[in-house]
Amino acid sequence: MSIRLPIGYSDFKEIAGGEFDFVDKSLFVKEVLEDTKVVLITRPRRFGKTLNMSMLRYFLDINANAADLFANLKISEEKEFFAKHHGQYPVIYLTFKDIKSASYKEAYEKIKYVIQNVYDKFSRVLLSSDQLTALQKRKINLVLEDGISQPEIEESLLFLSCCLHDHYDRKVCILIDEYDTPIHTGYLNDYYQQIAGFFRGLLGAALKDNPYLFKAALTGILRVSKESLFSGLNNVEVYSVLSQKYGDYFGFTENEVEELLVKTGQQAKSEEIRRWYNGYQIGNHRIYNPWSMVNCLMKEGIVDRYWLNTSDNALIKHLLLKSTDIFKTRLESLLLGRAITYLIDEYIAFAELDTNESAVWSLFLMAGYLTVDSFERTVDGPLCQLRIPNIEIRSLYRGIFVSWLSDGFGIPWYHTFLESLLDGNIVEFENKLKLILERIVSVHDMSHSPEAFYHGLLVGLTASLSDRKDYEIKSNRESGYGRYDYMILSKLPNKPTIIFEFKKVKLSEEELETIKLKLEESAIDALNQINARGYVVEAKQCGAKNILKIGLAFSGKRFVLVHEKE
Length: 566
What we know:
Elements: H1 12-16, H2 27-33, E1 38-42, H3 49-60, H4 79-85, E2 91-95, H5 104-127, H6 134-144, H7 150-154, H8 156-168, E3 172-177, H9 181-188, H10 192-207, E4 213-220, E5 223-224, E6 236-239, E7 252-253, H11 254-264, H12 270-277, E8 280-282, E9 285-288, H13 290-298, H14 314-321, H15 325-335, E10 340-343, E11 347-348, H16 357-366, E12 371-378, E13 381-387, H17 391-405, H18 411-422, H19 426-439, H20 450-462, E14 471-475, E15 478-479, E16 482-483, E17 486-490, E18 497-504, H21 515-532, H22 536-541, E19 547-555, E20 558-565
Parallel strand pairs: 1-4, 1-6, 2-3, 3-4, 5-11, 18-19
Antiparallel strand pairs: 7-9, 8-9, 10-13, 12-13, 14-17, 15-16, 17-18, 19-20
């Protein structure tokens, strides 16, 4: 069956009024209106936030004349609710999703332009209204003519809601999509304090004790709270990816995906699609990434990194490469398909991202780079079992490592580097590893725990293998009479299974002249340890016959490796 899904469309009128097939999430409107006065819903990028907010806007807006858009949707079956609320409110709708400026001045000007556009939408009716005073009309003109100060801009949504209430004699709805994009960008470009201060004023005035407000709904990726962005706003109810409510309204559920697969005739690809795009646990619902699903289905089931290709991963890359050794150890577990347990802070503090590991894991979870298997609420916050949700996200982490390790050499160079290891071509692997350490890696990267660094480096190099059926990655596992450091278990008869053992060599200034000899001795000790403790036992039990054992000794960037075949 041929269907047309709305790739790249986020305006509800365009979708519902056009010839698109889409998943009906219209009961979201009812849940929002029956919720508390001000709601903030946080979800990862491209999870349908803008479309749902657009739908809410068209449903509520007194000027929209949009009854036909909802005629065949689930919300139209709620007769009493529909009659009471549809088209009954003046709606102030703003989106800050495109405010990604390099400076505060530029960001402020863009935000002011967004607000001016909202004023312009209502200018004709308000400036001709008999219900508004001359002073109100003069102030509206000042906003349009760029004649007011920043404090007045911060009060502008409150003032506009007052004017709309006076004209329509009805309370106002304020809808703000992607409220945190400018704040996120401000952190990356060193104007966080300024932009956070501005939004503290804007949101505080519009949402706190606003007598003209009927309902406010905000969406974003993160809740920014510790910096008092919502200072004094005790009427905001926040729903994150850990919340039960609204769990099935952002992203696609299993049942919704099954219906889409049937409509597109792609049921045979369901398992592969599930491995790539499913895996998010939100409330009681297992959720697929909607952006990736729509792209995949419209491209006849071709799986690819659709969501990641839309994202700005600069912050994620920065945090990964500058993280602590303990963080990298936990990340290693995640890359190997395991879950980690960690205490999460739902309220992101950008100022703490460089110093507080909890803030980083919280960001990764809220932004969609991790998900939860389960969690329990404690007095210190949610204690979560975290994992990487699917292949698409795992490929992000791999891509960050690859771009780092191939910096200056190119991606094809990296692939030949990896293949030299998988082929057992140790001379080429060793030469390329020396280039990486000499040109890319800083001594500061390995200053705290060099062994953890080398271990993590190897995990980053081979992370992609965990999604291949012909390889299995194992780390710090018991085998024989001890625990080996790292194993790449090959299921291909012509490719070796590789076992690594690492040894750190501490050298005094007097011993630097004999460093090569010392490293060779330690590398041989590492190789002997593989043999003496029977680390090959597990590989043989798995059926491996072609086994390559590598002892690698290092001191800072200097290393020596020795190898032998079983």
